[in-house]
Structure formats: C-alpha cells, structure tokens
Amino acid sequence: MRTCRAAAAGKFTVVLATLMMLVACGSSGPSPRAWAASVCSALTPWRAEISKLTNSTDQQMTAQTTPAQAKENLVRLFGGAEQASETARRKVEQAGVPEVEHGEEVSAGFRASLASMRDAYGRARSTIDGLGTGKAGTFYDGVQAAVETLQQEYDASALDTSRLDSEELKRAFDEVPECR
C-alpha cells in the first residue's frame, strides 16, 4: 500500500513540477518587438478612426445642418471614438506586458492613456447628447465648449513617456513593420 502511495506521490510531484515549469515559461511577456507590433496593430485603426472623427467633427461644425441633425451626428461620432478607444485599450491589454525593464508600467501607461481618451470622448458624447436644440446659438456654444473640454482632456491623457524610457522598445517601435 505504501508503495502505491509513494509511486502516486512521485508521479504527482513530477506532474506538478512540469506544470510549474510550463506556467513559469508561459508567464513571461512578449518580446519588445512582438509587443510593439501588437500595440501598433491596435493603435493603427484607432488613429484612423480618430482622424475620421476629427474631419467629420470639423465638417459638422461648418455644415448647414439643423442643431438636431448636428447633435445626432456628433453623438454618433463621439460614441464611435469612445468605442474605438476602448477597443484599442483592450487590444493593448491583450498584448500583455513586454519583457523589458518596467514593462508593467509601460503597458499600464498605454492602457491608462487610452482609457482616459475613451472617457473624454464619452463625456463629450454625453454633454452633447444633453444639449437642447431649440436655440441654434445656444446649442453650438454648448458644442464648442464640449469640444474645447474634450481637447483639454485629450491633451491631459497623453502618455507620459519620461519615466517609461526603454531603448529596447524604442528600437522595436522603429523597426517593426506594423509601426511604420
């Protein structure tokens, strides 16, 4: 009986040790190049959406539309930017933590910046959605104020790279095709 238990315990120990090694090997993050490629792949469609939003917002501000039409369009545009920012944030999160010094800080910084941008677009969308359209002048003044606030919040959400200086990541972002 002791022999069966000892043999089973021995097999369990070998299986446990193998699992621990696999977990340890599998828990390391992606290389700087792989991480940079994933991040750029997440940010490229986001930048395109934001560029489209900016152009569309400019057109809405100068177009001869009714306040109700402008409101509908701007709410949709800012909602799209909010969603695009969240999608990019999730993809950066899925990219993991790069295998570089302070990799967790770098990854967290990217995610936090995108979350702040997402939230800024969401607040702008909500603000414009709450504006009345009865008086055009009042409506467009409210839109202008919302866009100015959005710009301030957007600028404040920019990633502070001064503490996230990694030569490996700089080189990776410069070299991988996804970032060009």
Structural features, described:
The chain is mainly α and 180 residues long. It contains six helices and no strands. The chain has helices spanning 2-26, 32-62, 67-94, 103-129, 136-156, 167-175. Helix 2 packs across helix 6 and helix 4 (103-129) runs antiparallel to helix 5 (136-156).
In brief, what are we looking at here?
78% of the residues lie in helices and 0% in strands.
Largest pleated sheet: none
User: Percentage of helical residues?
Assistant: over 70%
Instruction: Write down the Rg.
Output: 24 Å
Distance between the termini: 66 Å
The geometry reads as elongated
Which structural class should the secondary elements be placed in?
Answer: mainly alpha
User: What amount of the residues lies in strands?
Assistant: under 5%
In DSSP terms (H or I, runs of 4 or more residues), the helix count works out at 6
Low-confidence stretches: 1-27
Mean pLDDT: 83
Order of helices and strands: HHHHHH
Instruction: Report the count of strand segments.
Output: 0
